[in-house]
Write a structure and sequence with these properties.
By secondary structure, the protein is α/β, with parallel strands linked by helices. The protein has a single domain (about 5-175), classed as Rossmann fold (3-Layer(aba) Sandwich), CATH 3.40.50.450. The protein has eight helices and seven strands. A seven-stranded parallel sheet has the order 4-3-2-1-5-6-7, with helices on both faces. Strand 2, helix 2 and strand 3 (about 60-65) form a beta-alpha-beta unit. Helix 1 (about 15-30) runs parallel beside helix 2 (about 45-55). The termini are far apart. Adenosine monophosphate binds near residues 90, 112 and 113.
Length: about 190
């Protein structure tokens, strides 16, 4: 794996644990020589993961729509900042570049980006690993909802199993390397 896309909150979250988790992931990526691809902001959890990558000597690539450059405050110290026109372009560029996808704690924007990748795995539009870094159990209620979906047969069990959930970044990335994609969804 050369590059991993990380989706994450533009807010700090209520506990310092979230930024600490983001920093731990950033350091782990840099140590493995895996470049970070992310939204390009210097605020919130987004800034924390990028700073940790750069401080550990890694590569951080930001992809940001022009209209958000001032609002989300583009990170000025990145290895590369790609400015695009639209949110759709941002997601497409991140998806193209990355060999895997991780969501750190975040809000609706983070989930929107992550679930596009989740659903593309179901449709067989990519065969790359995807998962949640479950810092402080943040994603426990979401995992519970997904289990409910599978139990109520609105999602096949194989897609729940395909999504990797770990609290420790090293374990998450180890499992990414051993990932086998699920079968393409049939109806
Ligand atoms: P949030 O998790 O809501 O703090 O948002 C995290 C990041 O997701 C921010 O950089 C948002 O600009 C971005 N985002 C929100 N919605 C979308 C979208 N539809 N497509 C691409 N990025 C988005």
């Amino acid at each position: 794996m050369n590059k991993v896309a990380v989706y994450c909150g533009s807010s700090d979250g209520a506990s310092d644990a979230y930024k600490a988790g983001a920093r731990a992931l950033g350091r782990e990526l840099a140590e493995r020589g895996v470049a970070l691809v992310y939204g390009g902001a210097c605020v919130g959890i987004m800034g924390a993961v990028a700073d940790a990558v750069l401080e550990a000597g890694g590569q951080a690539i930001g992809i940001m729509p022009a209209f958000l450059q001032n609002r989300e405050i583009a990170h000025r110290g990145l290895s590369e900042l790609v400015v695009v026109e639209t949110m759709h372009e941002r997601k497409a560029k991140m998806a193209e570049q990355a060999d895997g996808f991780i969501a750190l704690p975040g809000g609706p924007g983070t989930l929107e980006e992550f679930f596009e990748i989740f659903t593309w795995a179901q449709l067989g539009l990519h065969r790359k690993p995807f998962g949640l870094l479950n810092v402080n159990g943040y994603y426990d209620p979401l995992v519970e909802l997904l289990r409910h979906m599978a139990k109520e047969r609105f999602m096949q069990e194989q897609y729940l199993s395909a999504m990797i959930v770990e609290e420790d970044p090293a374990r998450l990335l180890d499992r990414f390397s051993a990932y086998t994609p699920p079968a393409v969804k049939t109806y």
